[in-house]
Design a protein that fits this description.
globular; alpha/beta; about 280 residues; single chain; 3-stranded antiparallel beta sheet
């Protein structure tokens, strides 16, 4: 930012993060706010996964930098209403002129969200008991699945950071580089193609889609390939006082379990691949 010539600065900030599933700590946000305030930077904070924080303690950067933060969210993730396409942004009073300009530009693109969607969203935003219960069960199911993915992948040497919110984990398959070298696999995209062809599991390369180097073997793995409605019923039967076990995942989230086990076997097979004589 010291080298930025323009007086107009905008930071697009994703917290909780996609693709890593991680969140910024209170200390991180406080330190960032000092720099952002110093350089008079506007923050567009994408917090669409906030209500899915596994410990339900998401912290918005708007708490520490309210005058410069535009909070952006929607109902696609936490309310499982992706097809409704309803999002929203909250502007501070300090940015009211920018808000007016954005509204003016938006008026030439669309008029408003469909009325039925707006009525449903109003009910959601009341955050009544049934909505809170739904989100609680979504969080605990996602937390259990994320923990399973993390434990299984890291058990065979794959590097990963345990997610704290959302739908994704961002594992690094660098441990397989010697085997990839022998196979002529040089990029993450090539690795993803081989993984799909050999295990029928699809992941998304970290580079270039998520701005990682193309030769780095990091991928975005989405772990929500299961019947969410059925898992929700199962979680409600367990009760909120009982932790969700691996047995629960095998019964209600089996496609994810099978996919992770297929990746795990693929990793082990590559680690055992003998060097040519």
């Amino acid at each position: 930012m010291e080298n930025c010539v323009s007086p107009n600065r905008l930071l697009i900030f994703c917290n909780p993060d996609n693709p890593t599933g991680t969140c910024y700590s209170a200390e991180d946000l406080e330190a960032l706010s000092v720099v952002l305030r110093k350089h008079n930077t506007i923050v567009l904070s994408d917090e669409i996964y906030a209500r899915l924080h596994f410990d339900n303690n998401h912290i918005s950067i708007a708490k520490v930098y309210p005058e410069g933060t535009i909070l952006s969210s929607g109902i696609s993730k936490w309310a499982s209403a992706g097809g409704w396409r309803l999002g929203y942004s909250i502007y501070p009073s300090e940015l009211k002129e920018l808000h007016k300009a954005v509204c003016s530009a938006a008026s030439h693109t669309y008029s408003c969200a469909p009325a039925p969607v707006q009525y449903a969203a109003v009910r959601l935003f009341c955050y009544e008991e049934d909505t809170m219960s739904y989100v609680l069960h979504c969080r605990r199911i996602l937390a259990a699945v994320a923990k399973y993915c993390y434990k299984q992948l890291t058990s065979v040497g794959v590097k990963a950071v345990m997610p704290t919110s959302g739908f994704y984990i961002f594992p690094d398959f660098e441990i397989l580089k010697p085997a990839f070298d022998r196979r002529g696999i040089e990029t993450c995209t090539q690795m993803c193609e081989a993984l799909f062809e050999e295990t029928n599991v699809a992941v998304m390369a970290g580079g270039p889609a998520f701005l990682r180097p193309t030769h780095e073997f990091t991928v975005r793995l989405c772990y929500i390939n299961f019947d969410g409605a059925r898992a929700l019923v199962g979680s409600e039967k367990f009760g909120v006082d009982e932790p969700l076990t691996d047995a629960f995942l095998h019964e209600y989230c089996l496609p994810v379990v099978e996919g992770i086990q297929a990746i795990k076997k693929w990793v082990v097979d590559h680690l055992e691949m003998k060097k040519p004589k």
